[in-house]
Amino acid sequence: MRFAALAAVFLAGVAWFALIGALLVHVAIEDFRDLRTLARLQCPACKRAYGKTTARRSKAKYQRECDDAVRQIEADKEPGSVIVDVNFDNEWPVECPHCGHCAKSSAHHRNLVENPLAAKSIQNG
Ligand SMILES: [Zn+2]
């Protein structure tokens, strides 16, 4: 009986770590696909590919902005209140390294969306 209980706990632990590991691998693969897709997309203006460096930089900047927004929300919340969820649109501005044209990358749809406001955001940011 005792062995069966220990075996069950052990197997539950192994299953838990396997689930967490699978989730982390899934997130890493999705991130890789997002960046690979963006790197291969063509700028709507000059029709040249953005490239890996631009893809990584634009997503890293977006992630920093999301982190800053979460920190600001935490700082501004009422004492004792709880933040349930912060939902970001997972779209970020990307500036063409060749011509400077700005579009908005949509990770969810893995495409580009023209966004004139994004150009202002990149130039000021
Ligand atoms: Zn371009």
Written overview of the protein:
- By secondary structure, the chain is mostly helical.
- It has one domain (2-124).
- 58% of the residues lie in helices and 10% in strands.
- The protein is built from 3 helices and 3 strands; from the N terminus they run ααβββα.
- The protein has a 3-stranded antiparallel β-sheet.
- It is flat.
- The model is unreliable at 118-125 (pLDDT under 50).
- The structure holds zinc ion (ZN).
- Residues 43, 45-46, 48, 96, 98-99, 101 line the site of zinc ion (ZN).
Q: Kindly state the mean pLDDT as a whole number? A: 85
How much strand content do the residues show?
5-15%
If helices are DSSP runs of H or I spanning 4 or more residues, what is the number of helices? Answer: 3
| SSE ordering | HHEEEH
In terms of per-residue confidence, which ranges show pLDDT below 50 for 5 or more consecutive residues? 118-125
Bound molecules: zinc ion
End-to-end gap: 63 Å
Q: Can you give the helix content as a percent range?
A: 55-70%
For the biggest sheet, the summary is: 3 strands, antiparallel
Number of domains: 1
Helix/strand-derived category reads mainly alpha
Radius of gyration: 21 Å
> Widest sheet: strand order?
1-2-3
- DSSP summary, beta strand count: 3
Coarse morphology: flat
